[in-house]
C-alpha cells in the first residue's frame, strides 16, 4: 500500500509544497531543501496517494514526477484539471527528459511549469518561488471573485425585493370601475424595471390610464419612473395641471422631466376614459404601443409620431378623442413585448402581435394577454425578455 507522510517545518510560512515522486532519495532530498527555505512539505510516493493528499491538504504548489507507477505525472495533471475543486492547483512537473516535445505534451495535459531533475539548487528555488507566487495570485483572484459573487448575490436579492415592491404599487387586475375591466402583465427584464402603468381615478365616471416607458434598464430608470409615477397621482395632477386632459398632462410633464445628462428619457401614453359619454381621450409622447380592438374586430393603432418627453420643453402635446362601445378593448403596452428578436435578430413586431390578438378574438382578456406573451417568448426562444414588458388591457363592458 502506498505510504504518505507530512513533514513538519521548523519555520512556518503558511505556504505548503507537496512532492510526489516514487524515488525516495530524490523526494527526501528535495523535501529537505524546501524545508530549509521555510516551506511546509508534504510527501507522497505515487500519483494516487498524491491526489488524495492534494484534495485533503490543498497545498500551494505540487511538484510532480513524470514517470511513476499506476498514475504518471501527465495523467495526474489531467485528473486535476477535470476536477472543479482542484482546477486552479499549481503543478510543477519534474522530468529527466526535457525535450521540447515532452514539455509540450506535459503543458497540454495540465502542467504549469517544468523542472529538470538535473536543475541547480538556484533554479529549483526560483521555479518553486515562481509557482508559489502564481498560486498566491490565483488565491487572491479567487478571493476577489468570491467576494464579487457575494456582493452580486446581495444586490440580486435587493433588486428582487425592490421589484416586488414596485409591482405591489401596480394596479390589481379586475374591475377598476363599474363597466370597466383591466388585466395587466408585468415582466421586468433585469429584476427591476423602468416601465410602469397605473389607473388614475378622477371621479365615478372618469378614469385615467397611463403606461410610461423609461429608456435604459435597472435601478436608475426604476427610480426615475417612481418619481414620474408620483407626479401622475391624481392630487399631483390637480395641483400641477388642473385638468384631466391627456395632452395638457403630457405638456406639463415634459417640463418636469427633461432629458437627463446621460440622454435618458420617457415615452408615455395617457388616456382618459369617460364612461358616461363613452369617449376615450388620449395623448402620446414618443410611445407607439397603444391600440384599440373594437368589438367589430377592427384593430386601430392610435399613437401618432411625436417626440418623447424631455427633448424640447416647448413641445405642446395634443389630445385626440375616440368614441367607444361596449366590448371595445384598449391595449397599452411597452415595446418590450413586440420588439423581441429571434435567433437571427428578426423582430417579432406589431404585425405579429396584432395577428395573435385577432386569432384569440373575443376570448377572455387574461387569455389574450397570456397568449400574446407566450407567443413573444416562443419567438424569442427563452423566458428572459431583453427589455421590460408591461401591458395593460382594458375592456369597456358597459355593464
Word description of this protein:
The chain is of the alpha+beta class. It folds into two domains: 140 residues, Rossmann fold; 228 residues, 4-Layer Sandwich (Phosphatase 2c, domain 1), CATH 3.60.40. The chain has ten helices and 17 strands. The strands form three sheets. The chain has a six-stranded mixed β-sheet, sandwiched between helices. The protein has a six-stranded antiparallel β-sheet with strand order 7-8-17-16-13-14, with helices on one face. The protein has a five-stranded antiparallel β-sheet with strand order 9-10-11-12-15. A hairpin with a 5-residue loop joins strand 13 and strand 14. Helix 9 runs antiparallel to helix 10. The termini are far apart. About 2% of the residues have low confidence.
Task: Sum up the structure in keywords.
17 strands; 399 residues; Rossmann fold; Phosphatase 2c, domain 1; six-stranded mixed sheet; 2 domains; 10 helices; alpha+beta; six-stranded antiparallel sheet; 37% helix
The tally of helices reads 10
Describe the biggest sheet? Answer: 6 strands, mixed
Strand content: 15-25%
CATH superfamily of the largest domain: PPM-type phosphatase domain
Overall geometry comes to elongated
Structurally, the number of domains stands at 2
Q: What top-tier CATH class of the largest domain fits best?
A: Alpha Beta
Question: Based on the structure, what is the oligomeric state of the protein chains?
Answer: single chain
Instruction: Classify the helix fraction into a percent range.
Output: 25-40%
Q: Please write the string of helix (H) and strand (E) elements.
A: EEHEHEHEHEHEEEEHHHEEEEEEHHE
CATH architectural label of the largest domain: 4-Layer Sandwich
How are the strands of the biggest sheet laid out side by side? 1-3-2-4-5-6
- Which stretches are low in confidence, meaning pLDDT under 50 for 5 or more residues running? 5-12
Structural class: alpha+beta
Q: Roughly how many Å apart are the termini?
A: 88 Å
Radius of gyration, whole Å? 34 Å
Let me know the average pLDDT.
89
Number of strands: 17
CATH topology title of the largest domain: Phosphatase 2c, domain 1
